[in-house]
Amino acid sequence: MPPLQKPLFPDSPVADDAAAAAVARAAVAPDLADAGFQLDGERRRRWWQRTLKALSPGFGGVLLLFLLWEAVVASGWRPEWVLPSPTKVLGRVWNELFYADTWIALRITMQRALLGYLIALAVGVALGLAMVRLKWLRGAFGGFTTGLQTMPSIVWFPFAILLFQLGEGAILFVVVLGAAPSIANGLLDAVDQIPPLLVKVGRSLGARGFSLYRRVVIPAALPGFVNGLKQGWAFSWRSLMAGELLVIIGDRPSVGTRLHFARELADAEGLMAWMVVVLAIGLLVHALGFGLAEQRMMSKRGLLGAQR
Amino acid sequence: MSGRLVVEDPQSVAIAVRGVSKVHGHGPAAVLALDRIDFEVQRGEFVCIVGASGCGKSSLLHLIAGLDQPTSGQIGVTGGATSLMFQDPALFPWLSVEENVAFPLELRGVAKAERKSKVAELLALVHLEAFARRQPHELSGGMRQRVALARALANASHVLLMDEPFAALDAMMRDKLHEDLERIVAATGLTVLFVTHNVREAVRLGDRVLLFSSRPGRLAAQWDVAIPHPRRIESREVSELAALVTDRLRSSSASSPHAPAPEAAVS
């Protein structure tokens, strides 16, 4: 055994070993061949195929619901001015797309959604990280955040209106309250579920302190965290719709105000058209914003096996 | 680090363990896992530790790796750093094979070009050049363990600590990895401390075999393995010495009232 004076592989011994390695490499081939290395189907698909795949489960179900709906309308259970047929409603959605007001309403709603979600993200991540690091904080507020999550966001509105009057602030407040606990809890669960061995290995390979967080803890927690983000989106979208129905601001048209006025005018077709829009936005953000990213992450880590 | 021993003779000694005891738990539930362990590992030496389950083998590796502190006694490692390998390859699933191997290099701030050539060199060493871009889940168990070995080698320490690294592999794959490890150790002059419950594996690989008794873990006996390399696990010399070690393992376990039947001789 040669005494070792230099760092592990400066240049020489390994290079000299190349011939021996080549021989051994030939002998090793069988076990490489047996492992069956097929690229995941996921990775070979083009982007539009992946997009379709991400969208298809949601829209398949929606299609089925529309068929059922059509059948109920055809049965004459309710008059058409109360329960319009899906073709009429979809036609109305199409027509609405040609009005500038529609786009203004959509823009305002989506701005609120985005702003609320971003604030919720910041608050949720800060809260989640604080609870990960500080045991006492988690003991004090861990159960409380879960409780907040179960609380219907509409319950907050009277209080929010008291605090912020009928304005953007009230809506934002409730959207953030709706989404932040889910994001914080998702982060907390995700960190709890990191395999301890990965952290141990990371430490033994020289990752300490911040670099351990950045290179091991955060990537290992990502799948669980994305779940929390998804749930956070669902909660914030619901809270936003509740808010826009309750807090009608005169010069601020929104998806919620359109729903509200459709109800006031007993315009069943318009009401349902805007309900379809709400559903479609929720699904689209879910599928395109999270579905694609999640699919990619899961297939990279070999976690899609059960679904294939 | 507190309790770390400065190795007196760093030119020849790689690991020094002096009077190390480890108690797990507190009060009446406390268990003495390791009892006054004393040994040294020379530079470039391959030492195997065998013992039935509960002999504190894994605890000892954790202590040497600095992941845990001994209750009493001192441990010194020349150069300070160690690399660890476990039964589970524990590759980072979000990184590709080459990124896994590059992980310790990046942490040390090795420049990109050098990193790249080092990773290629290490992957060639474990015969996985063709799989650099794969994700860990696309590899077989034996290949993942080889990536883990390459990653451990990238850690640039002279001391490799292995905790039953091949226990989850089938016999053929294990033979293959024994050959790889033997070749890599010969090429690099690594110091290896290898924990196993498989006596034949210990004799196949080690320059020296340490036998630990169970509950509490004590250093019960040791053998120098004078069998020339390359060795085969089925060879007569290996079997004979393994039988000797196994007999001793049985008698040392029998004297301990709680010890389960040793699974050691089966391989």
Quick recap of the structure?
With 308 residues, chain A is an all-alpha fold. In chain A, 77% of the residues lie in helices and 0% in strands.
Unreliable segments of chain A (pLDDT under 50, ≥5 consecutive)? 1-42
| Main sheet: strand order of chain B | 5-6-7-3-8-9
Per the CATH scheme, the topology name of chain A is: MetI-like fold
Q: What's the quaternary structure here?
A: heterodimer
Number of strands of chain A: 0
Question: How many alpha or pi helices of chain A?
Answer: 13
Poorly predicted runs of chain B: 256-267
Mean pLDDT of chain A: 80
Gap from first CA to last CA of chain A: 51 Å
Q: Please tally the β strands of chain B and state the result.
A: 9
What global shape of chain A is seen? globular
End-to-end CA span of chain B = 39 Å
Instruction: Please state the overall shape of chain B, judged from the principal axes of the Cα atoms.
Output: globular
Cα gyration radius of chain B (Å): 19 Å
| Interface with most residues | A-B, 43 and 58 residues
Provide the succession of SSEs of chain A. HHHHHHHHHHHHH
Provide the helix percentage of chain B: 25-40%
**Succession of helices and strands of chain B:** EEEHEEHHHEHEHEEH
CATH class of chain A: Mainly Alpha
What attributes characterize this protein structure?
heterodimer, A: 308 residues, mainly alpha, disordered N terminus, B: 267 residues, alpha/beta, six-stranded mixed sheet, three-stranded antiparallel sheet
Descriptive report:
The complex is a heterodimer of chains A (308) and B (267). By secondary structure, chain A is mainly alpha-helical. Chain A has one domain (45-307): MetI-like (MetI-like fold). Helices cover 77% and strands 0% of the residues of chain A. Chain A has 13 helices and no strands. In chain A, helix 6 (100-133) runs antiparallel to helix 7 (135-150). The longest helix of chain A is centred in the C-terminal third of the chain and has 38 residues, at 209-246. The two termini of chain A are 51 Å apart. By secondary structure, chain B is an alpha/beta fold. Chain B has a domain at 93-156. Chain B has helices at 57-65, 97-107, 112-125, 141-153, 171-188, 199-205, 236-254; strands at 13-24, 31-42, 46-50, 72-77, 82-85, 159-163, 191-196, 208-213, 218-224. Chain B has a six-stranded mixed β-sheet with strand order 5-6-7-3-8-9, with helices on both faces. In chain B, helix 5 (171-188) links the parallel strand 6 and strand 7 (191-196). The radius of gyration of chain B is 19 Å and the shape is globular. Mean pLDDT of chain B is 82; it is low at 256-267. Chains A and B meet through helix 1, helix 2, helix 10 and helix 11 of A and strand 5, helix 2, helix 3, helix 4 and helix 5 of B.
